[in-house]
Amino acid sequence: MYVCGDLPHRRRLDLEPSSEGTPSGREEIMTVEIALNKKKWLCSTVYKQPQVYDRELIALLESTIDKAVQEGADFIVSGDLNVNVLERNHALSRVFQTTGIRNIVKKTNML
Fold first, then answer.
1. Separation of alpha carbons 77 and 42, rounded Å
2. Exposed, middle or buried, 6 (CB in 10 Å: 0-12/13-18/19+)?
3. How far is it, in rounded angstroms, from Cα 18 to Cα 26?
4. Which residues contact 57 (CB under 8 A, 6 or more apart)?
5. Which domains are present in the chain?
6. Beta bridge partners of 4
7. What is the pLDDT at residue 54?
8. What whole-number distance in Å separates Cα of residue 9 and Cα of residue 4?
9. Burial of 20 by CB count in 10 Å (0-12 exposed, 13-18 middle, 19+ buried)?
10. Cβ atoms within 10 Å, residue 98
11. Nearest-angstrom CA–CA distance, 41 and 13
12. What is the pLDDT of residue 10?
């Protein structure tokens, strides 16, 4: 993740699970807090290896998003989730619906 040096920001390790704290140790979440026009944004980027179970990713995302909501911050989640989010009822549908996250991907970039 790259952040413009002119933007006030800080990495939020308290919102990131350690590799020992993840179910398989093969999921990665990095979260940065960015201040934009006196508003706090939490930006998380996520990577899940294809062989990792979706339920493991769901647990990590729910935890990170719950913490962001408790802080009252706006948030963005991006990354390589290795889930086909274009399917109607994909593995993360419930998480997206309960947290109000909206998918902006309209077509896949996979070959």
1. 9
2. exposed
3. 10
4. 27, 46, 48, 81, 83, 91, 92
5. 9-99 (3.30.360)
6. none
7. 80
8. 9
9. exposed
10. 11
11. 15
12. 94
Residue 19 is predicted with a pLDDT of 52
Q: Is residue 35 within 8 Å of residue 9, measured between CB atoms?
A: yes
**In this structure, what are the phi and psi dihedrals at residue 105, rounded to the nearest 5 degrees?**
-75, 125
pLDDT at 26: 56
- Residue of 38, 40, 47, 39 lying closest to 16 (CA atoms): 47
Residues 44/54, Cβ–Cβ less than 8 Å: no
| pLDDT by position in tens, the chain (length 111) | 888 888 899 999 888 876 555 555 556 888 999 998 889 999 999 888 888 888 888 888 888 888 888 888 888 888 888 877 777 777 777 788 888 888 787 776 664
